[in-house]
Amino acid sequence: MTNEIHEMLVNRVDQQKQAVGIVAGVIEPNGRRLNAYGNLAKADPRVVDGDTIFEIGSISKVFTSLVLADMVSRGEVALDDPAAKYLPEHVKMPERNGKSITLLDLSTHRSGLPNVINLKPRGPTNPDAGYSVDDLYQFLSHYELPRDPGSEFEYSNLGAGLLGHLLAYRAGWDFESMIRSRITEPLGIPDTGITLTSSMKQRMATGHNSILGPVANRDSLTLAGAGALRSSANDMLTFLEAFLAYKQTPLAPAMKIMLEVRRAMGNTKFEIALGWAVFGEVAWHSGGTARFRSFIGCDLKAGSGVIVLSNASTPGGVDDIAFHLLNPKVPLANFEHPKQRTEVHLDLKLLDNYTGRYQSADRIFEITRHGVRLFAQGFGPAGIGGPMFELFAESEKNFFVKETGSQFNFETESEGRATRVIMHRVGREPLSFPRLF
Fold first, then answer.
1. pLDDT tens, residue by residue, 120-174
2. Which of 41, 61, 92, 402 has the fewest CB within 10 Å, making it most exposed?
3. Residue 366 structural domain
4. Which pTM value belongs to this model?
């Protein structure tokens, strides 16, 4: 099996070009083992290993919900507590038909809150960093829920980030200090956190986009509970040891509570527990940022678990490898090489022809120019804005997004002004957005 895992990683890095470095760890009743292949960065000769630090993205939500379960086990909070109970009095938490959003609703993605942050970023280089607690409070005080809390599943990074904020407020700490005190210190996983120690900085992998270009870090500390943690494969295997009860820890009661509560995950056969997606005896959570992909999962009946970490955010990701390691009957995916695109520089007057707003049935894209650079930002039905991202020109009318591999193709009138933009996303149908103004 060890040779098979190694071949999977070599194929994903060298043949399919879906990662620069990748680490896979397995834990079973007879112990734990680890395989790694690739480098910390394309230009870095150092190889990744079990102590290499990766962003783990949405796996952070498992940690956030574990803190919730721990507080429940200690009698500090209750799952049906209204979220408003742990906010300052001046903040008005949205309600609907007299129903309040509870801590359980936030953990199981049934709050009715949208997926993404709401404000227009204050700058294109690190848009999430400017999102403050006051911004979050302002949004909550004015947002109107589209459905009753608890009624439907809708994945929400905003809700998970809010849960982390509320629990930290209740504990009297910042989020990272709470995670350290409640989880990482009791479990003995010192390489898991947000702030990098000097040792972690030396072992931190460089993240890469969908075409394997290096991407700078971005931080969103206000919503840290949704995806801000970094960790290593060795730390994550130790976490799984505790979760599968191979290692006795003070968090055992809380880890048990996490799987006792189940809710339907939309119209699927999956369920959502506290922080975990569940299907039968398998519990898991995947993670992805603009530069990393990750997966943690376990087969509760077999007593096995896997962790897979990659330093590139590519369509291939790592989920199929992880599910295959949990169940060899699950096939591995076959991905094509990412297309290498070459950026060209266009005249500013030409770029200005593309700025403006473009709308489909339920979504708006705003295209803006900042100096010599063109940026786009999407807005949902309620005007909720996602992160701003840069568009790079590869020809006069065709642009691409380095982080995702998406393409934006502009249609123009005779004078060159854009009338429509068509967005092509990897593996999805293209979307057409006529220009508003």
1. 444 544 444 557 899 899 999 999 999 999 999 999 999 999 999 999 999 999 9
2. 92
3. 348-434
4. 0.84
